[in-house]
Automatic annotation (TrEMBL):
This is Response regulator. It comes from the Bacteria. PANTHER family: PROTEIN PILG, STRESS RESPONSE REGULATOR PROTEIN 1. The lineage of its organism: Bacteria, Pseudomonadati, Pseudomonadota, Betaproteobacteria, Burkholderiales. Keywords: Phosphoprotein, Two-component regulatory system. It comes from Undibacterium curvum.
Length: 137
C-alpha cells in the first residue's frame, strides 16, 4: 500500500504489510532501527542480517520490500552488498545508515541508487527513510 508525506512530524498515511531487511553488524543498531520503524509501522515484518553476505542470501529467501544497510561491517562493505542487491532487485529501496559520513561514502550510496542517512538512528532519520520507502509506491 501507498504511504506518504511527513506532516507535523508524523506520517499521514503509512505503508502497510511490508517487509524490512535490517543489515548491521551491531545487534544494538538493528534493535534501535527495528524499534523506531515498528513504532510507526507496527504491521511490518522484519528480517535481520549481520553481514553483507548474509543479506544477499536473505534477500533471495525473504524477498523484503525495503532494506536498511550499514556500510562498515566484517567482510563485504554494505555499499557493495546494496549494489549487488539492487542489480538483482532494481525496484527495492535501500537506505544506507552509517556513522561514516565522508563525502565519498555518501556519493557511493547515491551512485548505486540508495540514499545515505547518518547515524545515530533517530525518529527524524527514520522518518526520512520511511518517506523514501513510501516514494517507491
Amino acid at each position: 500500500m501507498l504511504g506518504r508525506i511527513l506532516h507535523n512530524g508524523k506520517l499521514d498515511q503509512v505503508l502497510t504489510m511490508k517487509k524490512l531487511l535490517i543489515v548491521d553488524d551491531s545487534k544494538v543498531s538493528r534493535m534501535v532501527i527495528r524499534a523506531h520503524v515498528k513504532a510507526v509501522q507496527p504491521d511490518w515484518e522484519f528480517v535481520e542480517a549481520a553481514t553483507g553476505e548474509d543479506a544477499l542470501k536473505i534477500v533471495d529467501e525473504a524477498k523484503p520490500d525495503f532494506c536498511t544497510m550499514d556500510i562498515n561491517m566484517p567482510g563485504m562493505l554494505g555499499t557493495d552488498a546494496a549494489e549487488q542487491i539492487l542489480q538483482k532487485h532494481p525496484h527495492m529501496r535501500i537506505a544506507i545508515f552509517s556513522a561514516n559520513v565522508q563525502d565519498t561514502m555518501q556519493s557511493r550510496a547515491n551512485s548505486i541508487g540508495s540514499i545515505f542517512v547518518a547515524k545515530p538512528v533517530t525518529e527524524k532519520s527514520i522518518a526520512i527513510v520511511l518517506n523514501y520507502f513510501a516514494s517507491a509506491a
